[in-house]
Amino acid sequence: MITGTVDMTHGGGGRATADLIRDVFQRHLTNPILDRGDDAGLVSVPGQRLVMSTDGHVISPLFFPGGDIGALSVHGTINDLAMMGARPLYLTAGFILEEGFPLDDLDRIVGSMAGAANAAGVQVISGDTKVVERGKGDGVFITTTGLGVVPDGLDLSARHVRAGQAVLVSGTMGDHGVAVLSKRENLEFETEILSDSAALHGLVADMVAAVPRIVMLRDPTRGGLAATLNEIATTAGVGMILDEAQIPVAPDVAAACELLGLDPLNTANEGKLIAICPAGDAEALLATMRAHPLGRDASIIGEVTEDLAHLVQMRTAFGGTRIVDWLAGEQLPRIC
Amino acid sequence: MRYISEFRDRALAEKLAKGIAQEADAARDYHFMEFCGGHTHAIFRYGVQDLMPENVHFVHGPGCPVCVLPVRRLDDAVELAEAHGVILCTYGDMMRVPGTGRRSLIRAKADGADIRMVYSTLDALKVARDNPDRQVVFFAIGFETTTPPTAVAIKMAKAEGLTNFTVFCNHVLTPAAIGHILDSPDFAPGGPARIDGFLGPSHVSAVIGSRPYEAAAQKYRKPVVIAGFEPLDVMQSVLMLIRQVNEGRAEVENEYTRVVTRNGNQKAQGLVAEVLELRDSFEWRGLGAVPDSALRIREAYAEFDAEKRFAVSDKQSREVKSCECPAVLRGVKKPTDCKLFGTVCTPDNPMGACMVSSEGACAAYWSYGRQRQPETAA
User: Fold this and answer.
1) Chain B closest CA to A140's CA: distance in Å?
2) Contact A261, A334 (CB under 8 A)
3) What is the pLDDT of residues A4-24, one digit of tens each?
4) What does the pLDDT read at residue A333?
5) What is the number of structural domains in chain A?
6) Residue A302, min C-alpha distance to chain B (Å)
7) Angstrom distance (rounded) from CA B140 to CA B160
8) What is this model's ipTM?
9) Contact B66, B81 (CB under 8 A)
10) CB contact under 8 A, B347 and A328
């Protein structure tokens, strides 16, 4: 049973979010597809296998360096499909608008959605709009649902993760989170950092073609690399050991995080993926990723281990070891 | 100079580790208290303990601002926001600390209180300017590092004639706490715990300088090395402490010379002295009442003192039963000595402040170091 009221930790992407999903949404909506716990629901229909996924977008500010809520709502859902190895086909979109929201801003946002969808080769085939009273929304919320096709034989899932497999990332960690923070009210700072918001299905198609034995993909959005790896470790019942020196972080992002007391490994990404593959395929997969514009800075960052406690550990660049934990609630700037 | 990577250089760390292993006397143990939570976290985040010989031990000190704030003061802040209807501005670290009945600011906010997270005192002033019809209280906590910005905010509020801005002042002082710890029976000869020297505060010392620790070093015959927050700073400072101990010296040395001077930032000290004054005594979680260890707002600025503007009620404030935060803050227990650690108390479900704060010892153990205690790992 769940009691009490919703507070900010429930939306932080950490364990409280996972608990809420399990205790409320999954408890009521349970079905074999949802319960797999993957980034998208895998369904079989005669002849073709389809995936569907849905994602709500409530970002503040609505416009940020390198993107906006419109493009993000397209990329976010496409990426959830792509993490299943799918080619995205169609999207639907639901808008919740706040009374008084400027129409030209809405025009910009929907235009940006169309641009992102066209670039990705998907169509938005259905939509819905609701308006709430002033003060009961935050400008605009967008929920998108996507449908895609999975190539035959491909079954990417955390359930297939085993000790000894290699862990890769497609590029620098934390760009999106820092770009958005840099424009938050009360925290504005001068930076050239852009959000990495991008659709990853093209990169995924190359990866899957080059290394069909790839085990799983996941995009490290809210909660960053740390939360996503912990999710995988818990689902798969394994541990991981990472090598900090191999985790790419852009110098500007490292500096901003240092200043604010944040950790790039806990900071959100919107155009990066984590890949797990058999150790023997890691170099081939890395070469394929680096050959794609969205995987230029890809890196092998660690390996899957046997660990009954399901801990994600890291050899620090300094020469020690530590745990890489998921966060309790939101990441907060330090005060001292 | 690249200020991030150079102070985390692996080759230098290995060289220092070798030096420490060579100079540490294998026939004895070394117990060094790092006063600041910032040091505790650097030690765990970079795995510094892995580079230390087995006879060098870190004793975690009380230098975590939200941890040492007694429950009563937190309960008062919740009351200000709920019963007095003010806009309460607070640093983010304070939001999740459980008060009496595990009521925190984040719970009060969820229930409708107007509590806003700010990143600086200037943000709190802006909230006051933007809400002229509301009373705005800044929940001021922290050591000497966060004190000057509080003093500046009060001076600015006075200069602007802001009538709806007050400060709930809870600023505390480091040197008084060090003396208090060394006076306690815990660290007396034959007591349950031992301290052979101190890693002195980094940012605090940037403000107050290294001079204020000299009296304690001399009186208690304990070496103090002011240490930066980077992992190489910590290792270099440990080496300096080992040398002092081996040579029988008890001096204040400064490893953090790129920031700290003997006299500190005198402009900041002047601002603080103009607006704030010593309290006779202040309650610390873990340490109890510590004389001359905290600041309050001077009479000349009384109109900006939330304690004078609002009458908070008497209340029975209570810590969570069997939470060992107080003993952890005194350095006499490790987080893993607490029955609640990792069982009912985790960062997601904190029973005490030390598990909440990004500077708390329990949070450091849990988030970075629980692989070292396999019996308590989840």
Assistant:
1) 22
2) yes
3) 666 767 666 778 778 866 776
4) 52
5) 2
6) 17
7) 20
8) 0.77
9) no
10) yes
